[in-house]
Amino acid sequence: MKKIFSKLTPPQVLTFGFLAIIFVGAFILRMPVSQQTGVHVNFLDALFTAVSATAITGLTVVNTAATWSTFGQVVLLVMIEIGALGFMTFAVLLFAITGQRLDLKARLMAQQALNLRNLADVKSVLSYVFSLSAIIQIVGAVLMLPDFISRFGIGRGIYLSVASSISAFGNAGFTFFDKPVSFLQNDPYILIIWMLLITAGSLGFLVWRDLLLFYRQRRVSLHTKVALNVSGWLIGLSFAMFLFTENVLAPLAHTSSLGHRILDSLFLAVVPRTAGLEVVPLSNISAAGIMIITLLMFVGGTPGSTSGGIKTTTLGILWMQSLAALRGQEQVNFGGRRFSPKIVIKAMMLAVISIVFVAAVSLLLTVTETIPKGQGMEYIVFEVISAFSTTGFSLGLTPHLTNFGEVVIMIVMFIGRVGLYTVMFSVMNIRDKPSSYQYPTEEVIIG
């Protein structure tokens, strides 16, 4: 076993490690102790739930509170925590607890899992990741306690506070209430806490580390500058667009006060890129609003965070590359730094492959799944992008998927969490092979 492990590359270890966690979780969920009395869940549905939890997505084929016992829900929360922080993070913690030294391979795997630039940072960053994650989730749970205890009693209130904090920070989209989470739509206190937890998880640990060390270093990395700028612009622009679409084009304008409509619009601007908490029912949102949500889901959060999608830095690099090309500039500059051509090409490749992947899966599901009357292609595309970006929003397709459709969405969620690059490098064993020669250039007409 050790000999086989030693031959695996870091991307392969990450891929197979997540698969192992998923199957162990599925087998535990399949046990009667994990299910409510009188409920019987088949293995495919248990596997789908395990994938969704480990991929911190939130898409479900069964009702979470009505299907899983308290033990089963705790299993889900553990998988969400592992999925959010990465199993390599927990593996390294185990090494530290047992006093074992990290060899080069373990450091490389942790570096791959957390998107670290410097191998020397591995131990310090992992320690920081655990500390920061624990503090944020504990604070979130404590802040929710008064509201939830007043609603559900002491025992249930404490449990829901902890579960909601884990789910929101992990950008998981899972809810553990006995009713739709939309009952909290008019509770600004809880919504603001959730938005802060979701944003904290979606920014990424490296960004938070940069910000917390700013008082000593008096500078932040280019990665942090791009991530914060793109995230800020996305939240601001989408907030303005939702204010228009959901106050002019949708029925929300006629069912709530101005203050609640503003809060709903802000919540919609924050949530779609990372966590599919459907506080504002999607059935109440305009077609334009659904389109905005779809685009936000595809972008996702920041590298090294708990979210999926093509990532904010990818969008930022592509946008700045486009502006530079329009100005006739060959180099892409931002914040007093220049992006390397290799990074720009990598961003382009990720965006193109992601679009092709989502389109191919959507086309496949249009053949195997039934689209209800009154719905169009967006019914399937929305679900696929939600799975790929590990967001968890649903227009209603997931509970009605065929067995084949469930398997397809599981694969999409898994790839969305582990990452297209990691999966491609692990399956195809891709390595950098610089060419020893170059062909002559020739112009091609574009546009």
From TrEMBL:
Pfam families in alphabetical order: TrkH (PF02386)
Location within or outside the cell: Cell membrane
Keywords tagged on the record: Cell membrane, Ion transport, Membrane, Transmembrane, Transmembrane helix, Transport
GO cellular component: plasma membrane
InterPro entries given in the database record: Cat_transpt
Main location: membrane
An individual GO BP term: metal ion transport
Topology within the bilayer: Multi-pass membrane protein
Transmembrane spans: 12-31, 43-62, 74-97, 125-145, 157-177, 189-214, 226-244, 282-301, 347-367, 407-428
Name under which the protein is recorded: Trk family potassium uptake protein
Organism in which the protein naturally occurs: Weissella paramesenteroides (Leuconostoc paramesenteroides)
Taxonomy of the source species: Bacteria, Bacillati, Bacillota, Bacilli, Lactobacillales
